[in-house]
Amino acid sequence: MPFGLKNAGATYQRAMVTLFYDMVHKEIEVYVNDMIAKFRREEEHVVNLKKLFDRLRKFQLKLNLAKCTFGATSGKLLGFIVSERGIEVDPDKIRAIQELPPPRTQKEVRGFLGRLNYIIRFIAQLTNQCDPIFRLLRKHNPGEWNEECQVAFDKIKQCLSSPPVLVPPTQGRPLILYLTVFKNSMGCVLGQHDESGKKKKAIYYLSKKFTKYEAKYSSIEKFCCALVWVARRLRQYMLYQTTWLISKLDPIKYMMESPALSGRMARWQILLSEYDIAYVSQKSIKGSAIADFLATRTTEEYEPLRFDFPDEDLMCITEMKSESSKEKSWKMCFDGASNALGHGIGAILVSPNGNHYPFTTRLNFFCTNNIAEYKACIMGLRAAIKRNIKILEVYGDSALVVY
Questions:
Q1: Which of 28, 86, 270, 361 could disulfide-pair with 167, CB 3.0 to 4.6 Å?
Q2: Which residues belong to any copy of the RNase H type-1 domain (predicted)?
């Protein structure tokens, strides 16, 4: 493709994924024209390189030898330093920011803040620290560089002297989520045990200020709201691994074991049903203290929680036509499953108007498939009793004996 086309990068990336479809995320990583052959042991390095070179030779692709590095244990990737320790900030870019003089014009202020976007994921509450500098960009009431701006400027440079190292999660080990909720804010720390199992390493820090409406929720509803928001933000981590939740209250038990939920709680229950989250009693206050600190130092910016959920979260919804004599009757469908992965039950109440009210929960004890069916039926009947339903049609796929 000729240079200058806007779709050149996307087309090249799509071509690389097509050519190396069976090697991407396994032996190599490809981002446009950056290609890395990764390995865990030295003896695998030559094998992966040979496979990569054979594929390049097959499609007549060439590499620039001056830009190639072999046998490196660390290096720059997309502007960051990637090594066995994790992801670190590039020292050259830190030095460039530290050597900047105090900005005097709005153009220089914008340039300084633009450079800070590179390190925003490495410094906690960077937006809050830059608040005096952001005031200089006001359109109708621009400020002047004063002592408060200089203090914030020096504090940011001081934070850059020892930036943290971001550690990626390890497959096969459960994640640990410390969740703390206050009156108007929440904070969390996502971590994981190291190889020894004695020390914890931080993976991600998050904090959020509740909206005006979320601040009116009850304590348990705030925990549920915070957990849903965190699951959305950390979906790429939590979706494929078991997560241990450590908090003062147990939102999982409240949502999964309540016989009847309506409105936002029912939607939150469906959104969390795809994650493997287990509540663990709090044994250490170290991670909780960090979460408390983040919750108390939230910025004024907030992100409203969206209640909509993708269609793939719903397995099946069927609308059944009823006879005229049964128009006011409710319907209940239940099912249970017991296998090597766990034991779960679910039920759906269908109102005469066609509204669906799903209920799901996980059983924490060993049971047969027949017992799971009984539990699912009982959970659905309890939900119907709580809603004062008089006429109920029950549908199931097992021949249960009901007295």
A1: 86
A2: 326-403
